[in-house]
Amino acid sequence: MTPEPAPARSAILEARTALGIELGSTRIKACLVDVDDPSLVLAVGSHEWENEFADGMWTYPLGSVWSGLQAAYADLIRDAERRHGARPEALGAIGVSAMMHGYLAFDAEDELLVPFRTWRNTTTGPAAAELTGLFGVNIPLRWSIAHLYQAMVDAEPHVAQVRFCTTLAGYVHWRLTGRKVLGVGDASGMFPIDPGTKSYDSGMAARYDELAGGRVPKLAELLPEVLVAGQPAGELTPEGALLLDPTGALRPGVPLCPPEGDAGTGMVATNSVAPRTGNVSAGTSIFAMVVLERPLAGVHHELDLVATPAGDPVAMVHCNNGASELAAWAGLFHRFAAITGSPLDADAVYTALFSEALAGEPDAGGLLAYNYLAGEPITGLERGRPLVVRTPDSRLTLANFVRAQLYGVFGTLALGMRVLADEGVGLDRMYAHGGLFRTAGVAQRFLAGALDAPVSVAETASEGGAWGIAVLAAYVRAAEAGAGSAGLGAYLSQRVFGAFAVETAEPNDDDVAGFASYLEHYRAGLTVERAAADAVALKHAVALKHATPMKGATP
């Protein structure tokens, strides 16, 4: 008698699976989960890619989007075959996520008008300032509406041809399904959302249409339709199936969930969608999300007002610069170990450096590290120059140096979070995720000191947003079956996170005081950072690329 297949293999063969794909800043990741128990990761795949600095803009060619997606999906297929002896040919659900914001503009023939302008571009200052004044809410530089209006202000020739604008996740979803839709969390990085209707704020849209004066179609025609988590968002077309899997093995007809941004998938991946919960996501950028109980009292340029995938209001502190500079230094130490004849793999380098940082002084011995590879709107810098700054009486040790670099990852974030604290926003728990937190007890501890709040890391942390969007894809199937009626928060708590272990780091008094001292000097030293950006020119801007983690490395 033929034995029954193992549960995981059976789920794959019977298409009881949900596929999540996330296009991050340095990696495209794919994650396959059991649709009935999304806590079970069945297979993963990834592909490394990098942005380009072309004609003064950070961008990714759309050809790289599709070649990268295909590579990540093929890697996942190989992983499923290796682990379970089964090749997925049909899926139960699919979800697409990507880095938020930015500008993808198309004409009436659905042709891209200008290269994709990513969230990292900071050329939209005049437009963002004018729109902030018009709406009475903060419009960050990276929001899609700021990019569109700045193109109008600059009288760019392509503006007259614009008929549709979307985000990277919205673009991929559109090509896979034919539907121009967007999850409410990602949409909240395009244009302000009304928490009551969970769609674009109609009053602000009317003001914008009047300001635009007919130079582009009205926003209702220009932007994607907004959907909330659990709503069906179309099915994989035959053309879409071939875009994802050129071998032709993947069958069309798979339902998709609303496409979401990386902030939304980070909230899902950390079970942080209820009021008074928050999360920090650390990668090429770093940002914190706190779900609000009430509206903020004032307008703050450090804070974005966005939404959870279910449409609830969120305050976001988004920093353009995250762990890339730390990765560059880790690469330097990786090479040093190799030339000494004692080579270490990438993760071992991070483990050694992070462990050494624990021996550093609470204030990093007077060292300051600025991770600014690009401009940073929160601190008012249009351009970045990575810096290490110290006084002659500082203590330059390896432990202090690494601690300063880790503090530097959290520096700008901490400035924004202090604005949120001054607003009296309550926070019961903060979760952290991203590869930075894989080395147990180090970055998590320092972040707790930086925020003066407990920081928890769940065992799902290294799976990140690709797993989060896979969970949202599974939630669509659960909603169809009536299992999602209690809402996204209840679904996550009851059906997804019940079995996960969570480690929590309480703030250490010495770390809190030490980081506060570091941050005081960090804030004062921004004058040096600004002077460096003005004085030190980029000699090869067109070829400039961000530092990326070594293969297999922690961030």
Automatic annotation (TrEMBL):
Entry keyword Kinase: yes
Domain Carbohydrate kinase FGGY C-terminal: 279-475
Domain of life according to the entry: Bacteria
Signal sequence range: none
Keywords associated with the record: Carbohydrate metabolism, Kinase, Transferase, Xylose metabolism
The keyword Kinase is assigned to this record: yes
Pfam families per UniProt: FGGY_C, FGGY_N
InterPro entries, A to Z: ATPase_NBD (IPR043129), FGGY_C (IPR018485), FGGY_Carb_Kinase (IPR050406), FGGY_N (IPR018484)
Family (UniProt): Belongs to the FGGY kinase family.
Annotated protein name in UniProt: FGGY-family carbohydrate kinase
